[in-house]
Amino acid sequence: MPLTFRKLHPQFAAEVSSIDLRQVTDPETLLEIRTGMDEYALLVFRNQHFTDEEHLTFAQRLDGQLHTKTGISALQKSRLGNEALADVSNLNANGEVYQADERKRMYGLGNRLWHTDASFQDPPGRYSMLFARVVPPVSADTEYADMRAAYDRLSDEMKARLEGLHVHHSIAHSRHVLGFEFSQTEQEILKGAIHPLIRILPRTGRKSLYIAAHASRIIDWPTPEGRLLLLELIEHATRPEFVYRHSWQVGDLVIYDNRATMHRARPYADTTYRRELRRVTSLDVEYDIEQAGTAPH
């Protein structure tokens, strides 16, 4: 049966009809999901039941090569045992809720800034697949902003001004903003990457802003004025009319296109309530879709 998509926001984001993604191996359904991503940039799948391995395998089937050089891997090894599986939780290596002053918690506060997964790598992230295992009994939402709609609303003068510009993205930069200290070795690992400020999405031809908290400076405009322009663009792109707020339920899998969205975690009592999400991100590399649809599982 074909998938159906229920729009969650006037600009983007849709909830997909009931389906067990562990069982999706046929190229036709995988293509439906990719087509839905092209249109909505963010898809919500309810009542999923992934193990870690099933989560990783589905991500590879859908979109190929996975991102493993997460920012936190420069600080310590993952407690989950696989660097392709990002630990988006408030738990330490013993599975206990972080104390307020623990270093990894302080690093994780950067997730509350508007950001785009893996923009500090080359190739950068394409699809992120964020899965909720444990959610707290209080609001602990995630907000997403549609960077395509934000670009569309810019004036023609501003669009022309931004065309051809390139931006340096560094996860160290976004943490420095919060006062987080890195060692010299960590700083070397997290040197960042350069990407166009405006990205063209290949299957739709739509243009999208590509900025957020990891964006440290405009390479072609390395002045305070260029930095101010980045901040103004983030402010513009996160206006309420461009933002969808997701309230997590256990079993939710949210897939979002990092080329077309940015996101941030909303604050909650994270030293009191356990919250455990896992994220897998694919890399934005050329990939044979037919091969993706028939990858081993």
Describe what this molecule looks like in 3D:
The protein has 297 residues and is of the alpha+beta class. It has helices at 27-40, 52-63, 103-108, 147-152, 156-162, 171-176, 184-189, 224-237, 289-293, and strands at residues 5-7, 14-16, 42-45, 86-89, 125-134, 142-146, 166-169, 193-196, 198-200, 207-209, 215-218, 243-246, 253-257, 261-265, 276-283. Strands 1-2-3-13-5-15-4 form a seven-stranded mixed β-sheet, with helices on one face. A three-stranded antiparallel β-sheet has the order 12-6-14. Strands 8-7-11 form a three-stranded antiparallel β-sheet. The longest helix has 14 residues, at 27-40.
Give the structure's gist in a few sentences.
By secondary structure, the protein is of the alpha+beta class.
Summary tags:
disordered C terminus, globular, alpha+beta, 297 residues, Double-stranded beta-helix, 7-stranded mixed sheet
Strand-helix topology:
Elements: E1 5-7, E2 14-16, H1 27-40, E3 42-45, H2 52-63, E4 86-89, H3 103-108, E5 125-134, E6 142-146, H4 147-152, H5 156-162, E7 166-169, H6 171-176, H7 184-189, E8 193-196, E9 198-200, E10 207-209, E11 215-218, H8 224-237, E12 243-246, E13 253-257, E14 261-265, E15 276-283, H9 289-293
Parallel strand pairs: 2-3
Antiparallel strand pairs: 1-2, 3-13, 4-15, 5-13, 5-15, 6-12, 6-14, 7-8, 7-11, 9-10
Identify the CATH homologous superfamily: Clavaminate synthase-like
General shape: globular
Gap from first CA to last CA: 22 Å
Low-confidence stretches: 287-297
Beta-strand residue percentage: 15-25%
Secondary-structure content class? alpha+beta
Total count of helical runs of at least 4 residues: 9
Remind me, CATH topology?
Answer: Double-stranded beta-helix
Widest sheet: strand ordering: 1-2-3-13-5-15-4
Order of helical and strand elements: EEHEHEHEEHHEHHEEEEHEEEEH
Output the CATH class name. Answer: Alpha Beta
Please tally the β strands and state the result.
Answer: 15
